[in-house]
Write a structure and sequence with these properties.
three-stranded antiparallel β-sheet, elongated, mainly alpha, hpI Integrase, Chain A, 6 strands
């Protein structure tokens, strides 16, 4: 940078930030003032060049990504369509048939197109409109399923939380309790039942499993050498829970009498005996109980689920308790190796002890 006097006027010569040589008039003929203006200009230019170096070496940071937003009822760009959420959820976890049915009804009924349009108010109004009747269990179950699918899609839908999360579960009231069937009632039932009912009743009576689990037992699940059945219960299948049931002598004799060795290995035993579906069977079983005079009492409701209570009570009365009973009624671990290492051996001993 230099100071020059041209035609009695002082000029400053300098090289700018872009590297080009430039000239600027100081508009004065006073040497002292020109020197002071020159020094001030040097300071300004040095500061300007310093800022340029900083901007070059330390470029401005990009603004952080937008934080997830809560549902506002107004669709914002970048969200996700409700119609696409089920496929997204299925890519992240296993969902059951009930999940698919519940979500399809929700997508058809909710009345909005995008996930961020579903506010907690809208979500609660939906549950109240369609599931507010009854004892509260259906309301809570529907809420749980919908909340699960929303939680699977929070990132894609750009939401901070599911609109169903703030909704409080209803207090469950008027829950049916099931009484045990007596052994005399069970014998009466077996004598009058059709083949599919006999098979289902015998499976439940001697394995202590629920209706949907008994309906899914296939010949391939029966290990005759160790006298056990390893099965994934229908109610907890999505949690990868397993149970190991003993093949008791009474059940073994009954199944052999059916000629089970000739049944298709991968088809459920009851399907080979004329079984239709769970709902039709429940109606058929209830009508049979009424016909036989096996009714509800003050102790609880008489139903197919009563056989599970009968079986558990029988096992307890015959010395099977604690961990062994939990292995039969509902396993605690989802590790198959753990089942084969520990449970099958102990349950096998139970079955063989009753066969002696």
């Amino acid at each position: 940078m230099a100071l020059r006097k041209i035609h009695n006027t002082y000029y400053v010569y300098y090289r700018d930030v872009d590297g080009k040589l430039k000239t600027r008039s100081l508009k004065t003929t006073d040497a002292t003032l020109a020197r002071r203006l020159h020094d001030d200009y040097i300071l300004q230019l040095q500061a300007k060049k310093g800022r340029a170096v900083i901007m070059r070496d330390f470029p401005e940071l990009k603004p952080p990504p937008e934080l997830p937003k809560t549902a506002t009822g107004e669709h914002q760009r970048g969200g996700m369509k409700i119609a696409d959420m089920l496929e997204c959820a299925l890519s992240k976890r296993v969902l059951g048939k009930t999940h698919l049915e519940v979500w399809k009804r929700f997508a058809d009924r909710i009345g909005v197109k995008y996930a961020d349009q579903v506010t907690p108010d809208i979500a609660q109004a939906y549950l109240q409109k369609y599931y507010s009747t009854g004892n509260g269990k259906t309301y809570n179950n529907q809420k749980s399923i919908l909340n699960t699918i929303f939680r699977c899609c929070l990132v894609e839908a750009k939401l901070s939380e599911s609109p169903f999360r703030p909704i409080v579960n209803k207090r469950v009231t008027h829950v049916d309790s099931h009484r045990n069937l007596t052994l005399a009632e069970f014998d009466k039932l077996i004598a009058a039942a059709s083949l599919d009912v006999k098979v289902m009743a015998m499976l439940s009576r001697w394995t202590a499993q629920r209706l949907e689990t008994c309906a899914g037992i296939t010949p391939a699940m029966l290990d005759w050498d160790r006298k056990v059945i390893v099965v994934s219960p229908g109610k907890t299948r999505r949690f990868h829970k397993w149970v190991c049931c003993p093949i008791m002598p009474e059940l073994e004799a009954f199944l052999n009498g059916l000629g089970i060795n000739k049944f298709p290995p991968s088809v459920s035993i009851v399907k080979s005996c004329g079984y239709l579906n769970n709902r039709a069977f429940s109606v058929k079983f209830s009508r049979l109980l009424d016909k036989l005079g096996i009714h509800d009492t003050k102790d609880g409701k008489a139903s197919f689920h009563s056989l599970r209570g009968t079986a558990i009570t029988w096992f307890k009365e015959h010395g099977i308790k604690g961990e062994e009973l939990r292995q039969i009624t509902g396993h605690e671990s989802d590790e198959v190796e753990d089942i084969y290492a520990r449970d099958i051996a102990s349950v096998s001993r139970i079955a063989k002890s009753f066969s002696e």
